[in-house]
Specification:
Elements lengths: L2 E3 L4 E5 L2 E8 L2 E6 L2 E8 L5 E5 L6 E5 L2 E6 L2 E2 L3 E3 L6 E5 L4 E6 L2 E6 L4 E6 L2 E5 L2 E8 L2 E8 L3 E2 L6 E2 L1 E7 L2 E7 L11 E6 L2 E2 L7 E4 L4 E6 L2 E10 L2 E9 L6 H15 L3 E4 L5 E4 L4 E6 L2
Antiparallel strand pairs: 1-15, 2-3, 2-10, 3-4, 4-5, 5-6, 6-7, 7-8, 8-9, 8-10, 11-12, 11-21, 12-13, 13-14, 15-16, 16-17, 17-20, 18-19, 20-21, 22-23, 22-24, 22-30, 24-25, 25-26, 26-27, 28-29, 29-30
């Protein structure tokens, strides 16, 4: 069964006053200080202009993260969208493009940022295995489909949790979306191999990535902690420090191999079986799995 996801209102700050805009299909509700207006779309050369169905001198004209608001013929100071940080980002190559989806709507940038399309308050439809967004830009309808399917960036190979398809005008853009860190965060990983050598007891060699950029675990003998960073280029571990407990020689040797390999990590991949491969480039330096 299709689920229509009601969108949160887009909030604006207009000088000392606040306003919100909530879309319902082609119409929208404008709310300012306890008063509501029903708006209809009005053709404009750029951005999105909506006019009250009852009062022609009440309207809002949205252009990107800014808007012009007129109430009963009186213009308010320039409005800016509040909380404009994107909730979801997707990127693609050949041609390069970026899509940001946030509380204010969807913004598509292509051709090095020279071409921009903005669709406020998209309709969201959830079906098994995917989520679809449908919105209207000044240049026509934009539709975005986000599939619950792993995607590897075609330039860097970096995995992302979602596969994304964008349709706008005559363009069909495909790429990857979501935060790659989500793929490794959460439950700890047990290391199966280090530099091609099997680990005798994977429960004594672990990696746990937290959502605040910290990595920690057991390094065969001692516990360790440090930092990790995910960029568009890959994954790096840094500032690793371990306790100084002494263990039998075999465990100490395995610990040194692990810490040395961790220092060389430059990226990661996930196999179809869900195992984690940590790489120094093209070569796998560690293989791990979740229990």
């Amino acid at each position: 069964m299709l689920e229509l996801d009601p969108q949160p209102p887009v909030s604006f700050r207009c000088g000392e006053r606040t306003a919100s805009l909530r879309h319902f299909g082609e119409l929208a509700t404008l709310s300012v200080e306890g008063r509501n207006w029903t708006l209809r779309p009005e053709r404009s050369a750029s951005g999105m202009r909506m006019v009250s169905v009852d009062e022609d001198d009440t309207e809002i004209w949205v252009k990107g993260n800014a808007a012009r608001l007129r109430l009963n013929g009186a213009d308010l100071p320039e409005c800016r969208i509040e909380g404009a940080k994107p909730q979801f980002r997707a990127v693609g190559n050949e041609p390069a493009w970026r899509l940001d989806i946030g509380a204010q709507g969807m913004e598509l940038l292509t051709e090095g940022g020279d071409l921009r399309a903005f669709a406020p308050g998209p309709l969201v439809i959830d079906t098994p295995g995917q989520r679809s967004y449908q919105g209207m830009t000044a240049g026509g309808e934009m539709s975005v489909t986000v599939f619950d399917r792993l995607c590897a960036d075609t330039m860097t190979g970096l995995p992302h949790p979602k596969t994304v398809e964008v349709r706008w005008q005559a363009r069909v853009l495909t790429g990857c979306g979501g935060d790659p860190a989500e793929l490794i965060q959460g439950e700890p990983w047990q290391v199966l191999e280090v530099d091609g050598r099997r680990v005798d007891d994977p429960t004594r060699l672990t990696l746990s990535f937290s959502d605040d950029g910290r990595v920690a675990g057991i390094a065969a003998c001692n516990r360790y902690a440090g930092r990790y960073a995910l960029t568009g280029e890959g994954l790096r571990l840094s500032q690793l420090a371990a306790t100084r407990m002494a263990c039998e020689p075999g465990l100490m040797e395995e610990e040194q191999r692990f810490l040395s390999a961790a220092d060389r990590i430059r990226g990661f991949a996930l196999t179809r079986e869900g195992s984690l491969e940590l790489r120094d480039g093209t070569r796998v330096v560690m293989r791990a799995r979740r229990n």
